[in-house]
Amino acid sequence: MPDVDGYIFDLDGVLVDTAKYHYLAWKEIAKEFGFELTPEHNEQLKGIGREVSLHKILSWAGKSLSEEVFAQTALRKNESYLQKISHIDHKELLPGVLPLLQQLKSKGKKIALGSASRNARLVLERTGILPYFDAIVDGTMVSKAKPDPEVFLKAAEALHLSADRCCVLEDAPAGIQAAKAAGMTAIGVGSPEILKGADKVISSLANG
Ligand code: BG6
Ligand code: MG
Question: Are 174 and 160 in contact (CB under 8 A)?
């Protein structure tokens, strides 16, 4: 890990293995429109907000919805996602997460969450890692979705750190773009082909 003062973690796909549940929930919704959502499409949904995701799926499917049905559909996706994560616990943490959080804490580093999800706090609570976080910025607190840097700039502000002293850990192209736009070091967690633009890419937090 680069030697900075603050580490800002994305949630889904970096700390917890919940990206697959978002994917499954969106796949069900897309199917209702006769559209088969593939893992390639899903890469473009990672990291971005619920409504922006639904707009993208509708445009791929060539469909449009009234405002009311759009809102109902976004709500149904979330209900399905919540159902899928109703059983989760610490076993859903991705490899290397706990040792890294413990190591950063012991070195006196600041830790924040920078996630688009409105369910972030619930997921941190259920997986038992909430106490490690000095600040949480989630989808209830931002108006502009990644790749806009807002979520990470707010996290740095909450940690009382300047952007250049923060490092973001992200699994989504939109998140890497957001981190770079914020002027932060960006570590991609996943594949280098997908996470272009990151300062460094690691296959998991266990291999940092
Ligand atoms: C991001 C996920 O963390 O949160 C996206 O990568 C998801 O897949 C977004 O759409 C919004 O999450 P939620 O839980 O508020 O619907
Ligand atoms: Mg993510």
Answer: no
89 has catalytic annotation: no
Q: Give yes or no: 10 in active site.
A: yes
Asked if residue 55 has its Cβ within 6 Å of ligand 1, the reply is: no
Distance 206 CA to ligand 1 centre (A): 23
- CB 42 less than 6 A from any atom of ligand 1: no
- The residue-averaged pLDDT of 55-66 equals 97
Looking at ligand 1, which residue's alpha carbon is closest to its atom 8?
A: 46
User: What is d(CA 164, CA 10) in angstroms, rounded to the nearest whole number?
Assistant: 18
Would the CB of 56 count as within 6 Å of ligand 1? no
- Residue 207 — very low, low, confident or very high, per pLDDT cuts 50/70/90? confident
